[in-house]
Amino acid sequence: MSRFNQPLGGNEMPRFGAPATMMRLPAQATAEGLDACFIGIPMDVGTSNRPGTRLGPRQIRDESRMIRPYNMATGSAPFEHLQVADIGDVAINTFDLKKSCDIITAAYGEILDHGAIPLTLGGDHTLTWPILRAMKARHGPVALVHVDAHADVNEHMFGERVAHGTPFRRAWEDGCLQNDKVVQIGLRGSGYAPDDFAWGRAQGWSVVTAEEVRGHSLTGLMDQVRSLVGDAPVYLSFDIDSLSPGLAPGTGTQEMGGLADWQAQEIVRGMAGLDIVGCDLVEVSPPFDPSGTTATLGANLLYEMLCVLPGVPQQPPAPLHGFSL
Questions:
Q1: Secondary structure class of 233 (helix, strand, coil)
Q2: What distance in Å separates the CA atoms of residue 69 and residue 77, rounded to the nearest whole number?
Q3: Residue 183 forms beta bridges with which residues?
Q4: Does residue 277 form part of some domain?
């Protein structure tokens, strides 16, 4: 018997049965004894358009029930190398976003004190700022790979400095980022001025718009990202609205012309070999996608993130055919 936790298999309990933990993993109250943990932040206090992301973690967990432990494409078997569990949700303050941010920072400080890598189920994108504050306290400034339709570097929204459109401006101000190792991928849509995406570039960040990668494999881009990041601790923040709205309609601020789901896989798989210290998947809003497809994509991307964490070997299988493709 493995000494590591295993997801509950479909032959042990029907997929529609058992409590809805991430991948039907065991649940525990803290990150003690874990190498990695799934944790939810059920928050939509920071949203500016359509709400509902407070329900994201619950549906992501539910839609993760079909994910099996072995990654057929990469050969990764995370549950053979890491101790992983679902540690529940951060008890945010539903009525006070700023207090919620302090609660999140404290909660992630405890996770990092246990030596676990947090994989976050969001929740609106405000949550990345307080997580990055905790990351800085543990690791110092970190590299960042940010996948999103929006830059999220607003100075303020409706006069407020804390919202889901401001987290990376606040993280920059707090010195959380290694500015020469920040990459934003998938930015697109309309703006207020021609230079709306230029603020990050002015700080030394690399900005890759959706138009630049449309129809292309992103494996080459991720080769360059790995070279840029090097051995720095790196955080991955993935907004589900980076995908085309036809693929992921359950989110609050859709923009047409987004990434394909296979490009999203290439981005996450391209993080393998880096010193990943944390990841999040944000902005899943179940009320706008009753089918659960958006949450299913989110759950699978979180699994892909688990598969590229340090300590998980990548062993792609040989092709099963003799064709030249």
A1: strand
A2: 6
A3: 145, 206
A4: yes
Domain span at 153: 22-307
201-252: pLDDT as tens digits: 999 999 999 999 999 999 999 999 999 999 999 999 999 999 999 999 999 9
In a domain, 118, yes or no: yes
Residue 196's pLDDT band (cuts 50, 70, 90)? confident
Kindly state whether residue 158 falls inside one of the protein's structural domains: yes
CB 315 within 8 A of CB 274: no
CATH code, 39: 3.40.800.10
Q: Supply 21's token pair.
A: 């933990």
Q: Is residue 8 part of a domain?
A: no
Tokens found for residue 108: 């992630």
Q: How far apart are CA 83 and CA 65, in angstroms?
A: 19
Q: Give me the residue label for tokens 């047409």.
A: 256
Within 8 A by CB and 6+ apart from 215, the residues are none
Q: Are 223 and 270 in contact (CB under 8 A)?
A: yes
If you ran DSSP here, which 8-state letter would residue 211 be given? H
* Token pair for 158: 């409706």
Residue at token pair 């889901």? 164
Look at the chain and report how many structural domains it folds into.
1
Look at residue 1 and tell me whether its pLDDT is greater than 80: no
Locate 14 and state its tokens.
């029907």
Cβ burial, residue 170 (10 Å; 0-12/13-18/19+)? buried
